[in-house]
Input
Amino acid sequence: MMGKKIFVTQPTLPNLDGFIESLKEIWENKWLTNDGKFHKEFENKLAKFLGVKYISLFSNGTLALISALQVLRITGEVITTPYSFVATTHALWWNGIKPVFADIELNYCNIDAERIETAITPKTTAILPVHVYGNPCNVDRIQDIADRYGLKVIYDAAHAFGVEKNDNSILNYGDLSILSFHATKIFNTIEGGAIICHDKKTKKRIDFLKNFGFADEVTVVAPGINAKMNELQAAYGLLQLNTYQKELWKRMEIVNLYRNLLHNTKGITFFNDIPNVKHNYAYFPILVDKNKYRYERDELYAILKKHNIYARRYFYPLISDFSVYRGLPSANHENLISARIIAKQVICLPLYSNLSFEDVEQISKIIKTV
Ligand code: T4K
Output
């Protein structure tokens, strides 16, 4: 039993003295939101940091996703994954769009590109895949299908901050990508999010939409929303950029330690790094095979809890099993067999830079020896 509660994650906060300095400046300026100094600086620095052309900051990832669908005027049906956080599908619902679930592949739990084509109907306008746990989707194949059928691609990249494929940001794929900077994410601004786009015209439209649709003081060009990031969050985010690399290294060490300690535990498997991918070590999911391990996933989850370890079953239940979505034709059991297998087996173990190696050893020991 751990002496203290250990949660699945813990946010890393910026240096307090540095933040107080920023707060003093904000108090002095009396400029709190609406494209202020810190907002501008954070947007510019973040775009360079991530290696993307244009980024628009948002107050959270969900509003970024809801707005991204508005930016591209997506309607009708959108093909998406049932294996994600519920906000992915909720964003479609809030836009009056019908979600069509396609099954995932078993290797990395992302939407199976080979299942997309059969889900297309005359009403399909876009594909909404998720880079689950920061592992890149099959971006080339997805683009190929989108091009062939004239569909847009919006990536829910809420988990994929800093992830690169062949030295190119994963955020450069698709028409748009969204990020989340929620407190539980690898890079946080308390709450926060962003849309990444590839041209100036689209960036302009995004910025109008997140500010009620105002193009200038007297012109509203679209029924926009209020989804702006404020100056305090932007100042906090700027400071977070200074320590991100350290955060990443520490997480990588922890993940490697987990892998070393758990690698020959019967019935426990995990994902390994993918060649040519720069990972961000946002989550450490393990799969519990009840036929080979002593316990079922939910039993292990309860055992860990008894030891004060609050692991989480991301992503169980499947989005398609929630009452709002389970009546959809694509939510049926036969359509989502792989997603069901993974949702029954997954547990995300605690992972954050402040987690000690001793705690990782302790957690691994419990899993190995219970
Ligand atoms: N798309 C995807 C694929 C996503 O995963 C998400 C969010 C979104 C879209 C939407 O982005 P945002 O609108 O959120 O920006 C959490 C987060 O709230 C959510 O942001 C995240 N995905 C999801 C995967 O996880 P919960 O309900 O599990 O969070 P909660 O409050 O139970 O926190 C988990 C643990 O973290 C706690 O047990 C303790 C620790 N914690 C949490 C907070 C908030 C702290 O130590 N400090 C904190 O301040 O949803």
